[in-house]
Write a structure and sequence with these properties.
Number of helices of chain B: 0
Number of strands of chain B: 11
Strand content of chain A: over 45%
Largest sheet of chain B: 6 strands, mixed
Structural class of chain A: mainly beta
Oligomer: heterodimer
Number of strands of chain A: 11
Number of helices of chain A: 0
Strand content of chain B: over 45%
Radius of gyration of chain B: 14 Å
Radius of gyration of chain A: 14 Å
Shape of chain A: globular
Structural class of chain B: mainly beta
Distance between the termini of chain B: 41 Å
Distance between the termini of chain A: 37 Å
Largest sheet of chain A: 7 strands, mixed
Largest interface: A-B, 21 and 21 residues
Helix content of chain A: under 10%
Order of helices and strands of chain A: EEEEEEEEEEE
Helix content of chain B: under 10%
């Protein structure tokens, strides 16, 4: 149980275009989802916290107009990178907390999406 | 906000020896401290966690200790094996409603056969 999926796993887009990444909780209801960005050989940096039905809370320094987050249901959150540039190339990972899971503290991570902007 | 420092950044040990990775945190209200193993291009995998009301937890070859007074926690891996080679991250969940994790910088562990 407690499986989180992400789609796509890899995406290549041209500079200036937008790309959407989906994060789904497959077998539990995710009240809170998180979006992280990880550059090569670096740690996970939290971008934003997403609660179902409300606006996302962005970390300091993360542009909310560039990284659009929508958490429209208890099983789906989306991250849209608008007007992508090569410096946005990174590994994007989502995670989720769920209701009724054995470990109420544990975050369940998606497999990540490798974004390359050319 | 919470700040987590992790040391060392790289660690190389002989197969069969023990490995210790240490983290410190700043928020005394932090209440949950997970450790993750991450292989290249993959998601972080929870290997052990500890809550603030416990001082030590062990799962086979892996153990975690927590010193709330000093605000530090450590990961101990005994009888290391080549498959333990990976990047390890500590994290702390700060106090408050946000429930967000702050990660350490990571430790690249290499087990030499």
């Amino acid at each position: 149980g407690a499986v989180v999926s992400q789609h796509p796993s890899r995406v290549i887009c041209k500079s200036g275009t937008s790309v959407k990444i989906e994060c789904r909780s497959l077998d539990f209801q995710a009240t809170t989802m998180f979006w992280y960005r990880q550059f090569p050989k670096q740690s996970l940096m939290l971008m934003a916290t997403s609660n179902e039905g409300s606006k996302a809370t962005y970390e300091q320094g993360v542009e909310k107009d560039k990284f659009l987050i929508n958490h429209a249901s208890l099983t789906l959150s989306t991250l849209t990178v608008t007007s992508a540039h090569p410096e946005d190339s990174s590994f994007y990972i989502c995670s989720a907390y769920g209701q009724g899971l054995p470990n109420s503290y544990e975050q369940y991570f998606g497999p990540g999406t490798r974004l390359t902007v050319t | 906000g919470e700040n987590v420092e992790q040391h060392p950044s790289t660690l190389s040990v002989q197969e069969g020896d023990s490995a210790v990775i240490k983290c410190t945190y700043s928020d005394s209200a932090s209440n949950y401290f997970p450790w993750y193993k991450q292989e290249l291009g993959k998601r972080p995998q929870l290997i052990i966690d500890i809550r603030s009301n416990v001082g030590e937890k062990k799962d086979q070859r892996i153990a975690v200790t927590l010193n709330k007074t000093a605000k530090h926690f450590s990961l101990h891996i005994t009888e290391t094996q080549p498959e333990d080679s990976a990047v390890y991250f500590c994290a702390a969940r700060g106090g408050g409603r946000a429930q967000k994790l702050v990660f350490g910088q990571g430790t690249r562990l290499t087990i030499n056969p």
